[in-house]
Design brief:
Elements (H helix, E strand, L loop, with lengths): L1 E9 L5 E8 L2 E14 L2 E8 L1 H7 L3 H16 L7 E5 L1 E7 L4 E7 L1
Antiparallel strand pairs: 1-2, 1-5, 2-3, 3-4, 6-7
Length: 108
């Protein structure tokens, strides 16, 4: 599955961004949130995705990290040129033994 980021734009709420992503030919919109946390006396920037984002990329952590990094760059004011192609990932089916239910897992 080819992943292309079409746009990242500020949303109406401060620190939130509307992110439009193309997964092959299917367009998805995610709301990403930029926050900060304190750890060991240091402020750490955090980017969080909405529930649709988490469900879409739960089996492909590499793709989600790439998207988090792009939103973080945008939040810092870095110049990004869209569309940005993040590459291909492959979804394979795995049987969940405890529930005997088929699920999809992304493999790069």
């Amino acid at each position: 599955m080819n992943i292309t980021v079409l746009s990242i734009e500020p949303a109406s709420e401060l620190g939130t961004f509307n992110t439009i992503v193309l997964l092959d030919r299917e367009q998805h919109q995610f709301t990403m949130t930029a926050e900060t946390a304190e750890a060991s006396g240091q402020t750490i920037p955090l980017i969080k995705g909405d529930s649709h984002f988490c469900k879409t990329f739960r089996w492909n952590q590499e793709a989600s990290v790439k998207l988090y990094k792009l939103v973080s760059q945008f939040n810092r004011g870095d110049s990004l040129e869209f569309p940005i192609n993040l590459g291909d990932c492959e979804f394979i089916k795995v049987e969940r033994f405890s529930l005997k239910k088929e699920v999809k897992i992304a493999v790069k």
